[in-house]
Structure formats: C-alpha cells, structure tokens
Amino acid sequence: MKIVHYQFFIKKMKIRILGSGTSTGVPQIGCKCLVCTSIDPKDNRLRASAIIETDDARILIDCGPDFRAQLLHQPFEKIDGVLITHEHYDHVGGLDDLRPFSRFGAVPIYAEKYVADGLRSRMPYCFVDHSYPGVPNIPLQEVIAGQAFMLNETEILPLRVMHGRLPILGYRIGQVGYITDMLTMPEESYEQLAGVDVLVMNALRIASHPTHQNLEQALIAAKRIRAKETYFIHMSHDMGLHAKVEEELPENIHLAFDGQEIYL
C-alpha cells in the first residue's frame, strides 16, 4: 500500500463524543433487552456526533436529532463549522437547532453536492436568499472527497467511505480520523488515514449488516489503519453491554461512550 503523509500542523486537539449510538439510539424504544434496560450510563447511546476542538476551531461532525439534548449541558460557545458525513436523518435531523449558535455569526455546513442539494430540498427555509428572523444562519459549503480545505487555519480532508452502496464522507482533521456508517472504504482513503493517532470509527453490532461494519469488520479495518487509539461509535443495542465488550477488545481499541473526552 502506498503511504501518503499529510502535513497537519495542529498543536493540540480535543474530541468530545456527543453520541455513540446508531439511528435508533440506545435504549431503543420498546426494547427490554439487557442493554436497553442497563443502569450503566455507558449503555445509553444518543445518535452519533462529535465535537473536535483544534488550536483555532470548534468543529461539529454531524448534527442529528439528539443535538439539542447533547448540547444543553455543554458550554455555549461558537461552532466554527459543521462537517456532514451524509444526509440520513440521524446525521442531519438537528440542523435547525443550530439557531442559537447563529448569535456568534454564520455556522457554515460542509457537505458534498448531493447532500447539500438534499438539505436545500428538505429544509428550504434555511437556505433562501432572504431569510426571515429566527432562521439558522447555516450557509452550505460544498466539498469534494480527497480535496482538503481550510476552516480558519485548520486543515480538513474529506475522504470517501462507502455506506453499503451509498458514497458518503469521512474526515481527517490533524491526527484524528472520523468515520461513521462505513461498510467498506477504497484504498485511497486508507492511505489518507495513514499516521493518525486517534481513529473514531463505526461498529454497529456483532452480527453482519448489509450497509455497516460489524465488530469483526471494524477490528480488521482498525488493525489496517493502525491508529494509536481507536474508538468505536454508531453502536446499536445488539453490540452488547459496554463493560463486557470492552473487556474483550485489544488494549488500544475501545467502545466510545457519550460524553467521553479524548485529548491529543
């Protein structure tokens, strides 16, 4: 495999896992399984999302329907941009809740073209030329897989991921890779993740799934990427109890949990 080295000059970073769950969340409505009835807070998983803070930027990755709840008890601070992986509701359903953050100025939304087109169709009132009071100030910025861009002085590299047959985006920010909803990834994307210190990546459940990695596939991908530390997200109740699965993982691979903070 050809190794590509990217120059990301970021002195320090912090990742906060806002949600580590899949589209239904955990507990899943109506379910009485061991995970959904667990009293361990690490088994409560809101929809997948994270905030990454660099030297000069506070970046939200995905903005799902749990966004309001996820931010209620966090410091109310400027969000410099939102990176969207794809248009599924569990990743974009909270965009309207960015309204309060518009007090700090525009909150640009970064997405590839087909996702941006879908958001304009789904939420037209947010993207009209002459908006009315109360509408979130969230201008769309189109990005292309493999073409890095700058958010303030922070370099961001969108990279191609396959969600079953749907092409979506993962992101590399400095020494962090963030991948969700992946089933497979092209060779180029593996090369673009070479040398990351922290990898946040999806692992849906134990059994196989037609559009997401299961735990075994995620472990294989993590071993190939070789990050110093890997954290699995986008987990369903079928992943099992956090404490039990965590004990069985390699030393440098973990199940993420809501509210977890990871420092580089």
From TrEMBL:
Cited CDD domains: metallo-hydrolase-like_MBL-fold
InterPro entries assigned to the protein according to its UniProt record, in alphabetical order: Metallo-B-lactamas (IPR001279), RibonucZ/Hydroxyglut_hydro (IPR036866)
Provenance organism: Bacteroides faecichinchillae
Superkingdom of this protein's organism: Bacteria
Sequence intervals crossing the membrane: none
Cited Pfam families: Lactamase_B_2
Residue span(s) of domain Metallo-beta-lactamase: 46-237
PANTHER family with a match to the protein in the record: HYDROLASE C777.06C-RELATED, HYDROLASE C777.06C-RELATED-RELATED
Protein name: Phosphoribosyl 1,2-cyclic phosphate phosphodiesterase
